[in-house]
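[step 3/7] inverse_fold.run input=structure_tokens len=276
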């Protein structure tokens, strides 16, 4: 197996069969992605997609989580940055997810631990997603006063608009079994230690099929989805998250998370839940 470590946030390995594995490697923040990780992921996926020796791409996370989504420290910088800088951030993230979804080779997400916010988006943008039974998922953006804009189309395409509303509006955690039942996952294994064996079964099946046919299948299915993620859709999602990210509610949400405090809109003990 050839191993190449990208400078900072990823590990990359390609085996003799052309199975590439990208491991997000910021375990100290549950593999939350910042500007650098977005750039490195985009570069890695672009290069592997264009490499004739690569047959499929596996996306995994180092440590206890798959990914805790966007880095809140980085998201919070929105209040100091210009509208144009925020929009560029969102466009870069939208482009990175698009590169994964649009990759002409099969892509597989390997989820252990947590997939939160943009982490769910990464799994949804992959063709196949596997998880261990203890994995938990949440489309958690609304907890911070923002929304799953850029990841939205991929989540909707994976689980449909009805389940996407539930996931995004409640922002609550679901189990791997629930994620399997709603179509976000393709297989759940009992323990994280069994993930690699499950991955091998999927890889062996995927390698039996014509690579060009697989590229055509992906292009065709992308046109048949609930909503094709066109350039216009991506721009709409980028415009939306960059606007909401700069708002007062988001500022309060990010600050509350970093201070390990509840956001101001969270009901406090003693609030009367029956009041109307
Ligand atoms: C992961 C747990 C459950 C661990 O919960 P825990 O085990 O209680 O540990 P913790 O909360 O103390 O976290 C450990 C360390 O990881 C950091 N950390 C952890 N997550 C992040 C993060 N995302 N960004 C930045 N830092 C993060 C956290 O700040 C802390 O740093 P320390 O205090 O030790 O210095 C908890 O930290 C948590 O809930 N994190 C937030 C996860 C989340 O909701 N992510 C969604 C981000 S928004 C997003 O992805 C937007 C996007 C891109 O989808 C928008 C769009 O699509 O348009």
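[step 3/7] decode complete -> sequence:
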């Amino acid at each position: 197996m050839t191993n190449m470590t990208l400078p900072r946030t990823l590990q990359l390995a390609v085996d003799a069969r052309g199975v590439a594995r990208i491991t997000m490697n910021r375990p100290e923040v549950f593999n939350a992605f910042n500007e650098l990780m977005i750039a490195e992921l985009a570069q890695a996926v672009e290069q592997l997609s264009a490499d004739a020796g690569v047959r499929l791409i596996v996306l995994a996370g180092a440590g206890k989580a798959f990914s805790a989504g966007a880095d809140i420290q980085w998201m919070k910088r929105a209040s100091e940055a210009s509208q144009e800088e925020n929009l560029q951030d969102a466009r870069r993230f939208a482009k990175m997810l698009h590169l994964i979804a649009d990759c002409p080779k099969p892509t597989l997400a390997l989820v252990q631990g947590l997939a939160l916010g943009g982490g769910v988006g990464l799994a949804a943008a992959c063709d196949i997603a596997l998880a261990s039974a203890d994995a938990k998922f949440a489309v958690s953006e609304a907890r911070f006063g923002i929304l799953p804009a850029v990841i939205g189309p991929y989540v909707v395409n994976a689980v449909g608009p009805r389940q996407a509303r539930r996931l995004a509006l409640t922002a609550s955690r679901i189990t791997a079994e629930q994620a399997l039942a709603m179509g976000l996952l393709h297989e759940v294994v009992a323990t994280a230690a069994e993930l690699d064996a499950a991955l091998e079964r999927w890889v062996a099946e995927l390698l039996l099929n014509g690579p060009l046919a697989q590229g055509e299948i992906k292009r065709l299915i992308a046109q048949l989805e609930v909503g094709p993620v066109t350039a216009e859709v991506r721009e709409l999602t980028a415009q939306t998250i960059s606007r909401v990210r700069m708002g007062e509610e988001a500022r309060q949400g990010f600050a509350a998370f970093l201070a390990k405090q509840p956001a101001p809109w969270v009901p406090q003990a003693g609030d009367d839940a029956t009041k109307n």
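[step 4/7] annotate
Residues 42 and 96 are 5 Å apart (CA to CA).
The chain has a mean pLDDT of 93.
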